[in-house]
Design goal:
mainly alpha; about 160 residues; two-stranded parallel sheet; about 45% helix; globular
């Protein structure tokens, strides 16, 4: 069975001391959840009235130490972080999720490198974020159509202009 396997390992020379002093650890859902939860607990202690916004960046991994295909490693990373964000939002009333990853997945918004998001799409995602939060309302309690620019709905034409 044919296929394309895109393992991309960070460039390190054989004699690089950094490679000898570090090791790769792919964090689990629980480790990520516990770390984000501890961060939120500390932030909430220091700033009890502050709201917290989580998001998952749409920018793809450029390489991985895991030995897996970089595309597979990227999706595993994004889905783990997205699931953590979902559970954190369920556990903490002061935390809101902003769907920048989902907005970017609605259509092809990436530059030719396949990793970075076009500046115009970034501007639209940020504009929608500002509009949603200027109104003082959480995106979790509104429909996408309430906050998307130009009266667009949650359809894939949101990021095309």
């Amino acid at each position: 069975m044919g296929g394309c396997w895109l393992v991309c390992v960070p460039a390190v020379s054989d004699g690089d001391e950094t490679q000898k002093s570090v090791s790769f650890h792919e964090s689990t859902f629980k480790e990520n959840f516990d770390n984000v939860s501890a961060t939120i607990d500390r932030l909430s202690e220091a700033f009890p009235k502050a709201g917290i916004v989580l998001t998952v960046s749409p920018v793809a991994l450029g390489c991985t130490w895991s030995g897996a295909d970089v595309v597979v490693a990227n999706m595993a990373s994004k889905t783990t972080l997205r699931a953590v964000a979902h559970e954190i939002c369920r556990a903490y009333d002061q935390v809101t999720y902003w769907p920048s990853f989902e907005f970017a997945m609605m259509e092809d918004v990436f530059l030719a490198d396949g990793r970075h998001v076009k500046r115009s799409a970034v501007k639209r995602i940020i504009s929608a974020f500002i509009e949603a939060h200027e109104a003082g309302s959480s995106i979790l309690h509104r429909t996408w159509g309430d906050v998307l620019p130009d009266g667009k709905t949650g359809s894939s034409d949101f990021l095309s202009g």
